[in-house]
Design goal:
Blueprint (H helix, E strand, L loop, with lengths): L17 E3 L7 H5 L5 E5 L5 E8 L2 E8 L5 E3 L10 E4 L4 E6 L8 E6 L5 E3 L8 E5 L7 E6 L8 E6 L5 E3 L7 E6 L5 E7 L3 E6 L8 E7 L4 E6 L6 E5 L7 E6 L4 E7 L6 E7 L4 E8 L3 E5 L2 H13 L4 E7 L5 E7 L6 E6 L4 E7 L12 E7 L5 E7 L10 E7 L13 H8 L3 E6 L8 H5 L8 H15 L3 E11 L1 H12 L6 E5 L5 H6 L9 H7 L6 H9 L13 E6 L7 H14 L3 E6 L9 H19 L3 E3 L5
Parallel strand pairs: 1-37, 31-32, 31-33, 33-34, 34-35, 35-36
Antiparallel strand pairs: 2-3, 3-4, 4-5, 6-7, 7-8, 8-9, 10-11, 11-12, 12-13, 14-15, 15-16, 16-17, 18-19, 19-20, 20-21, 22-23, 23-24, 25-26, 26-27, 27-28, 29-30, 30-32
């Protein structure tokens, strides 16, 4: 629906008109359409590239011969994008999809030469998960299925040539995770009683399970993979410390024996290793940007060579051959989705394969700047601020406060199409990692417990108040927007601070903490007691009182600002009734509310046409309520 910048000239707000240099407004489709080519992988033998590319507006798998350059499409999905895929062996790719966003994922194998497909796991109401792709076994994989009991997953050994499945362990009802050793043997199980987590181990697949260690869910011992002798584990642990560290965990003694890496300010995200050379290569963690700590000189030198050849971009290795001599490299930045490259490790040769979204002009995109501010009770909150291109240094800007989902997740530095779209339309965007956001340690995470709609919400508003104090934000033109938990924070922001936000956009957000917990999918049920401790227990009178006060749908009488709600009809996490009751409550009060429901979507919109419509309507809604207040300078100024 494209609006010119001239339509942003409005009498809203108190700041005098300001001059912005002429920045072309890009079509909404350019931000949200499927990439030309993405998700590149290389076959185990290095003969083919594979990638996802649009076919009838849906992401499908293509295979390209590396030597000849001949490419062909091997899947023909037209109703929904392929969600993910990987090479099972040199002849077959396995991909994952669901129906209409219901998140009951199932697996399909496709022959890379003939395109013949075989359904591997599809059953009504059953969700599939891959436990081990068994890289050294071209015939089989290990999958988890909840077909026996929808709340739990049993592990099966699945023959991808015949479709034959054999259960290799029966979940007793409390196992929430399984892990194999380097030989593909199922030897680790993670159990929960709702709040306590136990690590179970067996020396062989024939042996009995033994409990190694039990901890409260606040103390995380997350197995990453076995040591190369298959005797002990590399784990991510916050036992006896605030920030998670990469450690070696002795299974016979039930304790940590060596700390490999820890960062004083941030949790460790994980470890990478060379399967061929059997060495740990690097630890990763996230500060303002992603960081690596190298253990291995060969891996460090590879990254250093790549960084010299690809200056100005963040770099990730997304795929490698079985021999680890050829790799796929992905670049990205805050202003670009980047490109894919083929790198020959032995020759040190780098070859450009494809740009992900070549229609995005990096020169028109805005800088995403890391920021930090203090909450009203003294916590340091980190985040990102994106000022529209050509408006750097201006005062009293319209602001979209963009709250991330999770809530136990975090925002990252990098290209965010939502953020760049809003900035291109003249809105500054504030993202903040409020208390509870991950990677900042256990104390910061636990500070969010029982604080939905309270201190977590104050952290969000404190970011906007900080922008007002800096002179960046126009206090009369602040919108709040988010998806999932961010949608909840949007609704609660309008309830808690009814005169602060000019409007809100709620995308698949929780509106009622009681009905939300009643409506969670069955495979979340084992974690319900943990959610009671983190969010609130509806059976506890004190918690019930607090949850009533912080459920936006039960307090809609306090809302004054207009609201736009978007919802997928098939959402299994935040079911449609969460949005229905919020919209009904707004209509009864006569407060402006727009409601968009998509019958072929789930937790967020994935089909292109639905994304386009949503963001067009969001743009129109924001323009109406916090429209920018500036004049465009002549293009030759």
């Amino acid at each position: 629906m494209g609006l010119s910048f001239g339509l942003f000239n409005t009498t809203m707000g108190q700041a005098p008109n300001q001059i912005r240099e002429s920045i072309p407004q890009m079509p909404v489709e350019d931000f949200f359409r499927n990439p030309d080519k993405t998700s590149y992988q290389i076959s185990p033998n290095g003969e083919f590239y594979s990638y996802l590319a649009p076919h009838e507006s849906r992401k499908n798998i293509y295979v390209q011969h590396i030597q000849t350059g001949e490419a062909r499409r091997i899947t023909s999905q037209t109703d929904r994008d392929i969600a993910g895929y990987y090479w099972a062996n040199d002849e077959k790719i396995i991909f994952m999809r669901d129906e209409g966003g219901d998140e009951n994922w199932y697996l399909v194998a496709v022959n890379v030469i003939t395109g013949d497909e075989m359904l591997l796991t599809k059953e009504e109401g059953v969700r599939s998960q891959i436990i081990d792709d068994l890289e050294d076994n071209p015939e089989e994989i290990i999958v988890g299925l909840n077909k026996r009991n929808p709340q739990i997953f049993d592990p099966y050994r699945l023959n991808i040539q015949t479709g034959e499945m054999t259960m290799i362990a029966e979940n007793p009802g409390n196992v929430t995770g399984w892990m194999t050793d380097h030989d593909g043997k199922l030897r680790i199980a993670i159990t929960t009683d709702g709040v306590n987590t136990s690590l179970l181990h067996r020396k062989t697949e024939e042996a009995e399970w033994e409990t190694v260690v039990t901890s409260n869910f606040k103390e995380s011992i997350s197995p990453m993979f076995f040591t190369f002798d298959n005797k002990n584990l590399y784990v991510n642990s916050n036992l006896y410390r605030d920030k998670s560290a990469a450690v070696i965990f002795d299974l016979s003694k039930g304790k940590e024996t060596e700390v490999l890496f820890e960062d004083g300010s941030n949790d460790v995200d994980g470890l990478s290793y060379s399967r061929k050379r059997k060495v740990i290569t690097a630890a990763t963690y996230t500060a303002d940007k992603s960081r690596r700590h190298f253990f291995d000189d060969e891996a460090r030198k590879t990254f250093e060579r790549l960084e010299r050849q690809l200056p100005g971009y963040e770099i990730a290795i997304t795929s490698r051959t079985k021999n680890e001599d050829k790799i796929i490299v992905r670049t990205y930045s805050d202003k670009s989705l980047g490109a894919y490259y083929f790198y020959d490790v032995m020759l040190g040769e780098l070859k450009h394969i494809a740009d992900v979204s070549p229609w995005i002009d990096q020169n028109l995109m805005a800088d995403m700047r890391p920021i930090k501010y203090q909450s009203r009770d003294g916590l340091t909150i980190h985040g990102y601020l994106t000022i529209p291109k050509g408006m750097e240094g201006m005062k009293n800007l319209p602001i979209v406060v963009n709250v991330h989902g999770g809530p136990w997740a975090r925002d990252h530095w990098g290209f965010n199409p939502e953020v760049q779209f809003l900035a291109n339309r003249g809105f500054a965007v504030l993202q903040m990692n409020f208390r509870g956001s991950t990677s900042y340690g256990r104390e910061f995470w636990e500070a969010s417990f029982d604080q939905w709609g309270l201190k977590m919400q104050e952290d969000v508003q404190d970011g906007a108040l900080w922008l007002i104090d800096q002179g960046i934000a126009d206090p009369k033109r602040i919108a709040i927007y988010g998806g999932s938990y961010g949608g909840y924070a949007t609704l609660q922001g309008l309830v808690k601070d009814p005169d602060f936000y000019a409007c809100g956009v709620d995308y698949v957000g929780v509106s009622n903490l009681f009905t939300f917990m009643e409506g969670i999918p069955p495979y979340w049920k084992p974690y319900l007691e943990m959610m009671y401790e983190m969010v609130g227990d509806p059976n506890n009178e004190e918690d019930k009182k607090r949850m009533t006060a912080t459920s936006p749908a039960l307090n809609a009488n306090k809302i004054k600002a207009p609201l736009f709600v978007a919802q997928g009809a098939n959402d299994p996490r935040v079911i449609k009734s969460e949005s229905d009751q919020m919209v009904d409550a707004m209509k009864k009060r006569g407060i402006e509310v727009q409601y968009m429901v998509k019958d072929n979507e789930g937790h967020g919109f994935h089909n292109e046409e639905n994304k386009f419509e949503f963001y067009r309507e969001m743009e129109s809604f924001l323009n109406k309520h916090i429209g920018a207040n500036y004049e465009i300078a002549p293009s030759d100024r």
